[in-house]
Amino acid sequence: MAPSVADLQTPSTKDTISSLKQEVKKGPSYPFYYPYFDVNEKFPPTEIFEFTDPGTRADPAKPHLLTPNTTTHDISPYIGTEITGVQISQLSPEGLDELALYTAQRKLLVFRDQDFKDLGPDRQIEIARHFGPIQKHPTSGNAKGYPEFHVVYRDADHDPFREYLGDDRANRTQWHSDVSYEKQTPGTTFFFILDQPDSGTGGDTLFLSQVEAYKRLSPEFQKRLEGLRAVHSAVEQAENSRKRGGPVRREPVETEHPVVRVHPVTGEKALYVNPGFTRRIVGFKKEESEYLLKFLYDHITKGADFQIRATYKPGTVVVWDNRLTVHSATGDFDKSVRRHAVRLTPQAEVPIAG
Ligand SMILES: [Fe+2]
């Protein structure tokens, strides 16, 4: 009798298929950082703290950060520099001060070949704390026992990113500035990759410079923005988490921030509105507020000439100044692919009006 198709599948082919399946099913490389949600975890309301940006102490020449071994490459003129030849974990306090200054100047730094992901949680937190007290996220996955970590995780079975955005979106772009509803918004922010698509492509982060976005406006328009304040809200994020049975660790807040803020180290002015959390302009009627915010969102999101994509390789750490930038994930990789990354989010000053 002629062999069936099943018989023609040799044992070795079967083994290969089964090992491929196991490969797809294998767990995260860093299970400690698997997102942890405890609906009973509660944090007290945040309190105002004294803050001095470490960048104010930095030597402008940055001798501890930019040594002869360091190579830098500007990704675009307005935002982003890629750095090789330096380990964040080896930087002295002076080097970390210089990192704060350089991040403020370039808005975003991409550090390659870092050992950061293998330092362990305590040392990672210690380094990030140099830049301010670390925000504990009210709704996102954290690491068990370490609420300082904000975990970004997607795989075939677990995809909060797509759940959050829903299925009726034509694209998955979601420009925002992290947790801008906090009274003291994040400053020098760390993001490191643990697992990424094996293809090495997909899952970039889009960033734009709010400093350049502000500079592009006419002096007359800049004058109109002066003194305006906007409401940033945590309410939708909390409601969304509640709806999905997730935690709301702190009651959601609504906070007013200036529409234009000044960086405490560089003195640069930046727009400080984002579609993710900014809801209305204080003192404007509804239609007026929508009109102005729509213009500002169109302006920043269409400004491809002051945007970049941060790309990830194993060992990449991206550091950005959350006061001067807006960013969006790109969910452009296959649903079955695991992507795992962690953010440490030091909080900075109460925004200074520009
Ligand atoms: Fe973000």
Automatic annotation (TrEMBL):
Compositionally biased intervals (Polar residues): 7-20
Gene Ontology molecular functions: 2-oxoglutarate-dependent dioxygenase activity; metal ion binding
Organism annotation: Mycena sanguinolenta
Domain TauD/TfdA-like: start-end pairs: 73-345
Membrane spanning residue stretches: none
Sequence segments annotated as region (Disordered): 1-20
Keyword Metal-binding: yes
Top-level taxon of origin: Eukaryota
GO cellular component terms, A-Z: cytoplasm
Name of the molecule in the record: Alpha-ketoglutarate-dependent taurine dioxygenase
Key words of the record: Dioxygenase, Iron, Metal-binding, Oxidoreductase
